Amino acid sequence: MYPAIAAPERHSVDYVSQGQPEGPSIQQGSAVVPGEIVFSSVASLITGHGTYRSVDASSTNIGEDLSSAVNPDTLASVNGDPGIQAGNIHTSLTGRVRIVNKLVYVEPPKARYFGNVGDTVVGRIVEVEQRRWRVDVNSALLANLALANVKLPGGELRRKSEDDERAMRSFMKEGDLIVAEVHEVYKDGTLQLHMPGTRTGKLGGGCLLRIPPSLIKRQKIHRHRLAIPRMDTLDGPITISNEVISVGLILGCNGYIWTGPARAMDIGLGLSAPVEADLNTANESELLAERIAVCRVRNCILALTHNGMPVWETSVLTACEASWSADQQNDDDDDEYQLEFETSINNDSSGSKSRNRIARLLHPEVARRLVTLVQAKLKSDY
Amino acid sequence: MDTVLLSDLERFYLVQGVEVGCRMDGRGPSEYRPLEIETNILSHATGSASIRIGETFIVCCVKMEVGKPSLTNTSEGRIEINVECYPTATHRCNEKAASELEERLKTTLQSAYQLKFIDLSPLCIQRGRQCWVIYIDLLILEGAGNLLDASSLVVKAALLNATQSNSLLLSVFQNNSESLEAGVQQFHGDMLPLFITVHKIGKAYLIDASKEEEACSLSRLSLVIYPDGSIGSLEQDGCCSCQLESIVEMSQLASIVGKKLNHALVKTLELERQLRS
């Protein structure tokens, strides 16, 4: 369901030509299944994640070993270790082969997050223990966030004491969303998180999406502020205005994507309770327009994910622009539009069919058409 | 109840959005997620159907066998509903939550099919000894909210699919004009019920709540809606109570949505039957 798109070919030293087996050759980005031999035993390559070497102990080696023991003077003629020889390189995962110089590993299309030091991750706190929080970051085990690695409210720099241990639930409690960085990866796979600088902290109100981690493109910056064109109603006529609404987007490397108002992304930085007093002054049309923009980003990311497209800032922006252009275009073609959603169930007081522009992105055919437009636009840009 | 873990800020954001009129995925208050219904998916069953609402996935199978009638109604057949839920369909991914969900769905669906609009007397073979038993088996494969509405939809689709291949079921589920009195207005078609669940979130009423919206809902009302828009039994659930005005408004909303959903379902199945033949 989520096919991983092959990465572009990398130009490197050709270490792999010396160990090619018979038949179709294994190249960068080839699809493999578990048990497949990708390189023979003479290849001087290093196995990585998803590959292993089989141990080859044949009877010929035993014979050679006995011959070496009987005749000590011919020991110099034996090449290497006479007992065990390196076997073929097999794969143990379904995915695509990646070759980096002498390292061979497999990238599976759908896997849990295994952790890299320095990655930005979005997680949800599931437990509060004595000196740490347990965070769900879509990995095999729960991640740890120690109290010593968390900034205090207000930015105060001092050692943590017992009073801070007792006040841990007032900082963050079960269910809270955080954005953090991976500090360390332990031997058993547990991740140790920390919150350095001003780019990490607690997140405010928004949407959390769960997609496979392989669909998120690794980049330097994972926090974005998107400018989405403004739309005032879900199904009314489109009033063309030049206003844009700022939508915050955090692409966690673990597959968790947070999107919400840009105000909620900034409020949650200092670990203090977000001030909702200014929301009382905002009127309903402002809230509705802001929410429509966030929903458009959310549905565009889901459309990209369900069609196997990687998610990064440019693709999300292109998808939002394509959906906004499709909204303008679909208002002119009323007959074609109503024919597509003949069986839609809407509680409409008037006789005409209402057309929800944001929710129609959830339909599989609309999502597929949107991703086709995005791919065509990105290909023409590059 | 088995709900997802949400932070307070996410709940506030969701409740505020529902009151403004725009949900988390941009739907209106009474809009369904994309619905996919497929019938005749199992070749060995009398009737079968599968449904997808968003990411909720339920498969239903209808089988008819000869069995013994119940002791209270010796001249009628029986309808037995069984629900099986995969543990991965629940949020906690364990057997206990799946068993609780199975029991609740089984009793709720069974109560909707014990009414007078379904005439089970043609299923009688020999009074007190033999009758036809309709076994309805539900398999919940993925749960993403709104399991009761999806279950009732797929049961109705499977029963309508069974009616096409079994002429005996026509007299059970179709409304014959001979059985009614002359003065009563006759409704042509089936009288199979549907469940419509209305959630009260903040000051708004929602249809087809997702998992996050179910976690934020304080009270919900499940109504049995018949194809002519009439309301059968009501079931109120949740940790809060409802005022009478809220119940009246929720019932009116469910009646309107249920009538349209019934009409859309019957029309879709009719189109599918035309495409097959």
UniProtKB/TrEMBL annotation, chain A:
Residues 206-258 form the K Homology domain. Keywords: Exosome, RNA-binding. GO terms for biological process: CUT catabolic process; exonucleolytic trimming to generate mature 3'-end of 5.8S rRNA from tricistronic rRNA transcript (SSU-rRNA, 5.8S rRNA, LSU-rRNA); nuclear polyadenylation-dependent rRNA catabolic process; poly(A)-dependent snoRNA 3'-end processing; TRAMP-dependent tRNA surveillance pathway; U4 snRNA 3'-end processing. InterPro entries: Exosome_RNA_bind1/RRP40/RRP4, KH_dom_type_1, KH_dom_type_1_sf, NA-bd_OB-fold, S1_RRP4. Residues 112-184 form the RRP4 S1 domain. It is found in: Nucleus. One of its GO terms (molecular function) is RNA binding. Coiled coil: none annotated. GO terms for cellular component: cytoplasmic exosome (RNase complex); nuclear exosome (RNase complex). SUPFAM superfamilies: Eukaryotic type KH-domain (KH-domain type I), Nucleic acid-binding proteins. Belongs to the RRP4 family. This is KH_dom_type_1 domain-containing protein.
TrEMBL record, chain B:
GO terms for biological process: exonucleolytic trimming to generate mature 3'-end of 5.8S rRNA from tricistronic rRNA transcript (SSU-rRNA, 5.8S rRNA, LSU-rRNA); nuclear mRNA surveillance; nuclear polyadenylation-dependent rRNA catabolic process; rRNA catabolic process; TRAMP-dependent tRNA surveillance pathway; U1 snRNA 3'-end processing; U4 snRNA 3'-end processing; U5 snRNA 3'-end processing. It is found in: Cytoplasm; Nucleus, Nucleolus. The keyword Transmembrane helix does not apply. Pfam families: RNase_PH, RNase_PH_C. Its main location: cytoplasm. Residues 31-162, 193-254 form the Exoribonuclease phosphorolytic domain. The keyword Cytoplasm applies. InterPro entries: ExoRNase_PH_dom1, ExoRNase_PH_dom2, ExoRNase_PH_dom2_sf, Exosome_comp_Rrp42_subfam, PNPase/RNase_PH_dom_sf, Ribosomal_Su5_D2-typ_SF. One of its GO terms (cellular component) is nucleolus. GO terms for molecular function: mRNA 3'-UTR AU-rich region binding. PANTHER family: EXOSOME COMPLEX COMPONENT RRP42, EXOSOME COMPLEX EXONUCLEASE RIBOSOMAL RNA PROCESSING PROTEIN. This is Ribosomal RNA-processing protein 42. It comes from Schistosoma mansoni (Blood fluke).
